[in-house]
Every structure is written in structure tokens, then in C-alpha cells.
Amino acid sequence: MSLIVVGSMAYDAIETPFEKTDWIVGGAATYVAYAASNFIKPINQVSIVGYDFAREELDQLLWRGVNLEGVEIKKDKKSFFWRGRYHLDMNTRDTLVTDLNAFLDFNPVIPDSYQGSEFVMLGNITPALQISVVKQLKTRPKLIAMDTMNFWMDNALDDLKKLLTMVDVLTVNDSEARQLSGESSLVKAARAIMKMGPRFLIIKKGEHGALLFHEDKVFVAPALPLEEVFDPTGAGDTFAGGFIGWLAHTRDISFENMKTAVIVGSAMASFCVEKFGPTRLKEISRADIDARIRQFVDLVNFDIELV
Ligand code: AMP
Hints:
With 307 residues, this protein is of the alpha/beta class. 37% of the residues lie in helices and 25% in strands.
């Protein structure tokens, strides 16, 4: 039982209206791995970094059960670098710099030792590369989940639509769901997107939680009302990591268990935003996570008696 995670590993510079950092480890696949490693080992990581990616960062991932055989280290290039600045709402942000560096050469190759992994999380990269990963898998995994973004809807829609027929779960935010479907109602959008391929759809709504759709069923998960959101970077990837980590741990892909997975993902995301980058994810224990999940249950649990 194992999980393949594909995506960026990076260094980020992050500015919020209150704090700033010029150099912190990031990348979608880094967040997914940190979140999922609380539930499943090994994680078979597929990414590319440059010569500047700190050995200690790789060692921490190894220590958490992340297999790095599929992570290429480019000796002559720097790592992917991203700089973003958040607005006062801490939800919307501007990308100030995207230096692809080593990421420009990313051509994911699935090592033989990764074959047979039952779960796959395709982080947000070019749909053509996501397709190439799926095509390299010799046995169809039990579950393939993918993330994407509006940029690919604008620039690689044909590939994206092809990929959607190959996966089981899509995660997008609400505006991306509307763009992809051309529907303004999220219920109609979900129906239209599921017709494109994925049997399950997760629509993330930031501080308003997430919706899980499957057939004619829908489940709503709240986000934890936090007094302070310190840095939202990576929250979506952390959600995805908690979600798929839980599914891989339980090996149960029923709608009922996916509801739990969505709560686990939401709990992991609520930790992620408490400090810069993945700092908080590196600190927490399984006991912290279990306590946070119980907080979520209390948040939505109510008895009702209709008279
Ligand atoms: P999120 O806040 O969930 O969108 O994830 C932010 C992370 O995605 C950061 O750590 C960035 O390094 C990474 N990132 C930003 N832009 C891209 C991109 N174009 N492709 C892949 N990863 C990216």
C-alpha cells in the first residue's frame, strides 16, 4: 500500500499584510507529502529540484517516509522559485515571481520501484505531464486524484479534458469549477464536471470549507474558524495530502469514507495556515491531528428535534 505524489518542490518568498519571508521551502508536492505522511508510508515522490535544495529538507522528508528515488536533482540549475503577496483578505494573492529554473526540465519518470502504488496524487502541473504519469503506470491504481488551475483551463484545455477522463477525483476551487463547467451554480458545475470523467469532485472554498460531490450526493465540510490565518500558502495542497493520505491509509474509497477524508484534509489545512510555509506541518504529532479532527466534529455536530 503506497502513494505516488507528483508535483513541484520549490522555494517560496511570501508576503502577507503582516509578515514576510524571503526563503522558505514550498512546492505543491512538498505540502502533499508533509500532510499525507501522517497517515501513509511510503510516499513515492516524483519531482525535480536544483542544486540549492537543502539536504536537510530532503532528509526531513526521508525521515517521514518519503521515498525520493523519483526526485531528480539538477546539478546546474536552481530550484523552482515562487514569490507571492497576499491581500488583506488573506485569500486572494498576486504572484510576483515564478522562476521555473530546474522545473522547466521536469519530465516525470516513474521509477520501477514505484509501480504498483495503489494511490496517486497528481499535483498542479501541465496536464500533458500529468497524462504522461498516468500512462507510465503499468497497473491501474485504485484511485487517481488530481489538482489543476485556471491557467491550464485557459492554455491547455484539450489536454486537461483528456486527463479528466483518466482520473477518479478532481480538486479545484469554486471559481475554477465555474470556469471549467461554464455554470454559475456549483451544483450544476459539479454535475457537468463529473460528466467529463472524475467520479468524485472536491470544490474548495477557502475559509468557507469544501464540498464533496459524487453521483447525486453532496457532503459539506466546514473550515475551522481560526482567529488568525498567518499564511495560507499550500493550504490546498495540504488539504489534498490529508485527503489522499487518509484514503490510502484506510484503502477505502467509498463516499462515506471520503467524507472522513475531506474532514482530515480540512484539519490538515487548518494547521498549515498557522505558520509560514510547511513549518507547522513539520511540528505537529498524530495526537495534535486527532484533537483537531475532534474539533471539526464538534463544529458541525448538533441534535435536532422537529416538533
Ligand atoms: P497553493 O497555495 O496550495 O496554491 O500552493 C502554493 C505552492 O505552489 C507554493 O509552495 C509554490 O511553490 C507552488 N507553486 C506556485 N506556482 C506554481 C506553478 N505554476 N506550478 C507548480 N507549483 C507552483
